[in-house]
Amino acid sequence: MDTSILGIDVSARKLDLCWSNTESSEAATIAYTREALTEYLAHSNKHITPTSCVVGLESTGDYHISAARFFLKRGFTVRLINPIVTKYYTRLTIRGAKTDQKDAALICKLVKDGQGAVISWTDVADRDKELLRLARHLTKASAQLKVRLQSTKRKELTQMTKIELSVERLVKRISKVSDMCVAAATTDRSVEEELIDTIPGFGVQLSATVYHELGDIERFKNAKSLVAYAGLDPRIKQGGSKLNTTGRLTKRGSPMLRHALYVAANVARRFDPELNSYYTKKREEGRRHAEVLCIIARKLLYRVNAVLRERRPYVAA
To answer: Which long-range CB contacts under 8 A does 157-165 form with residues at least 24 apart?
Structure first.
């Protein structure tokens, strides 16, 4: 049977659908509810089944998760498209027109061309991943409140004592909840988390964050694709005969993953002899602190790739 594609553009309240095979295509717009999706599959003129159709979705924060779960529960193969890819192809069109229906058709075409990563149930129902992300946001909020509170105190404003004490209690409460999230997410550690933890620079929280943000290591072809997924690869620009391959980072993928690797790099450059020597050398050459840490973060990601694929703890060379 000829495999068809169902491309879906997701928004908060509606779904724009584009079904296509080698002979025809069909567009539709429905409400973003489980009932509407069930009715669409039941009454569509097309034969949309798990064995005959692949579903394509654009990664849109958390909006796409309910739709992905709906189709995964029913046994469909679901591919998730990076929004950077859809934006790139939209810019290539003559008019650069962008509508929800055009986006659905583009997603359909991209999936047909083999774009998008196949996702599983764990990719859309990872409790520990969400807890670690929540802990990170709470930590940032707590830090911002502390800065704002110190700024307020320096101004020595009148009748502010009670409010300042309330903010201090709030900061402590936020920090406590953040610690609770981390504890809940790292209680039952996986083998993968323990393997990552053998690499200098990683601890319990960082190894858990990296593992959950990466997912299954086998979905990456090699270490370079892993680095690209983390957004730690440099932008490449060429003008005439000049080729610059050391530009700014692309910053694709998960910012949580990049942050965890950056923090791990800052720890590793102090306690790992090889990386400490590398850091010192590059700093003496005039490279900036943040720039060298990004390079070390890439090196750590290569180590993560090795220990996860070979299923053995890290051993220094």
So the answer is: none
